[in-house]
Amino acid sequence: TPADGDTQKENNIRCLTTSGHFGFECLPNQLVTRSIRQGFTFNILCVGETGIGKSTLIDTLFNTNLKDNKSSHFYSSVGLRIQTYELQESSVQLKLTVVETVGYGDQMNKEASHQPIVDYIDAQFEAYLHEELKIQRSLSEYHDSRVHVCLYFISPTGHSLKSLDLLTMKNLDSKVNIIPLIAKADTVSKNDIQMFKRKIMSELISNGIRIYQFPTDDETTAQTNSSVNGLLPFAVVGSTDVVKVGKRMVRGRHYPWGVLQVENENHCDFIKLRDMLLCTNMENLKEKTHTQHYECYRYQKLQKMGFTDVGPDNQPVSFQEIFQAKRQEFYDQCQREEEELKQKFVQQVKEKEATFKAAEKELQDKLEHLKVIQQEEIKKLEGEKKQLEGEIIDFYKVKAASEALQTQLSASAKKD
Ligand code: GDP
To answer: Which of 44, 52, 56, 74 for a ligand 1 pocket mutation test, highest count of atoms within 8 Å of Cβ?
Structure first.
């Protein structure tokens, strides 16, 4: 102010303007520098039928050629293909993990198609929880593999969602941020796309499926995000081909009747998806994964393991108390199991003893029976022996008598 200026002149004080920032005004800069040094990770899960355009869209999104061999339609169950890429855009490094379903929608029985996907998401949460509960943690170096977003590819039937879509999304919505996409949107007319979008949204709502909503609580992005929420599901087209339109080379798909430009907002929602996913809301997707989906998994898991924040009397319980209670519970259970095992062992010994006794008795009876038979046999043989002996005596008697007679006869013959 002029008055201040006068005072400065009077006191001969020089007024300098500051060059650059100082004080805690610089805090955001520190964060930016650190984030750039550390690099970023982002994990995308693509769920959709074989050949629906998952790999092509990822290539189009990241302007790369990550695509590998074509998937077959003949897998007996749903699998996952996990690939991690290190990408760089100016000085920003991004460790991107793309998980794609393989064989999804190709089986006759599609009831369990969502299970491998759910298991994969849970396994990443479990790995993070494991790291978090370690005594020596290194979360800053830990490669966080939790899925930050699930791009769900809907077939461009123009009609309605399939039961497989509803079942899978229902099973995933509490574990991951789902962004539904109408794949190969160039195969459906503009009017049909609008009707299809409305139909899909009403089906999702009536089946109680929660999809990711772009956040509207931050005033810098609220307006864009709320208008884009109204565009869901995004009608996307993927292509890695570059086509000539006038004097420009654009990414698009060339048809006999014209060119579909992937990056033209009048042709499809690809640009909206890319902006929302990579430029505006990637951090929110990651934050929501951590604070909502992972938190829910962690809560359920720790509760199952017996951890609690308050006891039955609504008083806070310390970790030490829980640990001791758990240890006591474990000790009691071991005792119970040991007692049960002992009882079982005694019972089995008793049973074995009884069977041995029964077998012994049976043998004894058999022996007695054999003895009786043997006695009878001996008796019989003795009778026969006696009889034979009698016969032998008789024989000798007869023999002696005949010999005597013969001697008499020969003596009388000599006399004559
Ligand atoms: P994935 O098995 O789901 O990974 O499918 P691919 O990305 O390998 O795509 C299968 C076929 O569909 C390829 O021939 C692609 O050129 C084609 N394709 C991919 N995206 C689109 C699209 O948006 N529109 C049309 N019409 N075809 C597409």
So the answer is: 56
